[in-house]
Write a structure and sequence with these properties.
Oligomer: single chain
Strand content: 25-35%
Order of helices and strands: EHEEHEHHEHEEEHEHEHEEHEHEE
Number of helices: 10
Shape: elongated
Length: 345
């Protein structure tokens, strides 16, 4: 059994990806930031998930976790009572070497009189005695125990991969306000990419959306950015992802694209929020960008990510033949953001 950890609001994307990619998988629970599922197939397939921040071997779900400092001791006792020997065997086989150290990652939702840092400290002391392994709080690559506290429930697991899934190895360089790879993949899922599509990212940044969109095998990929350095970084990252992947990249202003009318069938774009990347008047910027997207798009789809949700809705209202088919609220870099599927009526 496994559970994913997801960006808030995007749990349904992992549920869909698991159902589509893993025949025989059974979804057990979908809740805040998590999808719990069982899968009888190869564990190596599970780490191929792209819509999740991370995925864990499930050890247990502990109920009735109190919020007082005295309850911290009870939590530790419940955690160390779990079956770690089987997990150690699985992870050792998966790592292809013996496990000599462990680490702990912890996060918390809800009010309590002890912090997630105190949870790590208390659990690490008890686990050293039980596992007979060295504790390393810096490296989280060998046997990383995950303690996810959600109000009065604790989900316990061990990370499958040596690094979080969202940290894609192809991202050699990044630009300001770079988009997380798991979110980019969810945007590509939302856009419903077909094999016949020409996919455009008009503000490509470090190329993350284009790389993730390529996994859906569209016919053609186009991208560009107003920042020439970003275009170079995108080319470098895409080459690291797949040296044989052909992507047309250019320096341009997304409000004046050097493309013919109806040149593309799908647009996926992480719109700047006006915080980390200055765009001037955000209303004017969104209005100009949306009009240009409409010009180059066939009767197709746009997968848009925006922090300025109200401003984007206002911009879309100037084009009454467009409508928002789906919206997913999430949180990125401390900003409430929205994934939106926009279609022509």
């Amino acid at each position: 059994e496994y559970f994913t950890l997801n960006t808030r609001g995007l749990e349904k994307f992992s549920e869909k990806e698991i159902a589509e990619k893993f025949p025989g998988a059974e979804i057990r629970e979908v809740s805040y930031r998590k999808v719990m599922f069982s899968f009888p197939g190869d564990m190596a397939n599970v780490v191929e998930l792209r819509s999740a921040e991370d995925v864990f071997l499930y050890l247990g779900k502990l109920n009735n976790i109190g919020h007082t400092r005295n309850d911290l001791g009870d939590l530790v006792k419940k955690i160390i009572s779990l079956n770690f020997s089987t997990a150690l065997k699985y992870i050792s086989n998966f790592r292809k070497h013996d496990i000599t150290e462990f680490s702990i990652s912890s996060s918390s939702v809800g009010k309590r009189n002890f912090s997630y840092i105190e949870v790590k400290e208390a659990v690490s002391e008890a686990m050293q005695l039980k596992l007979k392994l060295a504790y390393d709080d810096e490296r989280h690559e060998a046997f990383d125990l995950r303690v996810f506290l959600e109000h009065d429930i604790a989900y316990i697991g061990v990370r499958l991969s040596e690094r979080p899934l969202h940290r894609r190895p192809y991202k050699l360089s990044t630009t300001r306000a770079t988009l997380r790879a798991d979110v980019a993949y969810c945007m590509a899922m939302l856009a419903g990419i077909q094999h016949t599509d020409t996919v455009l990212d008009p503000m490509c940044g470090s190329g993350t959306i284009l790389a993730e969109a390529s996994t859906f095998n569209p016919q053609k990929l186009l991208g560009g950015d107003i920042n020439e350095e970003a275009v170079k970084i995108a080319a470098k990252n895409i080459a690291a992802f797949n040296p044989s992947l052909r992507v047309s990249l250019r320096k341009w202003d997304a409000r004046q694209l050097p493309l013919e009318n109806a040149a593309v069938s799908c647009i996926i774009c992480n719109l700047p929020f006006g915080k980390q990347i200055e765009v001037g008047d955000i209303n004017a910027f969104y209005t100009s960008a949306v009009r240009e997207f409409d010009r180059v798009l066939q009767n197709g789809r746009r997968g848009l990510l925006a922090s300025g949700f109200k401003e984007l809705v206002v911009a879309l209202n100037f084009l009454p033949h467009l409508h928002i088919a789906a919206t997913y609220e999430t949180n990125l870099n401390g900003e409430v953001s929205h994934l939106m599927l926009v279609e022509k009526k």
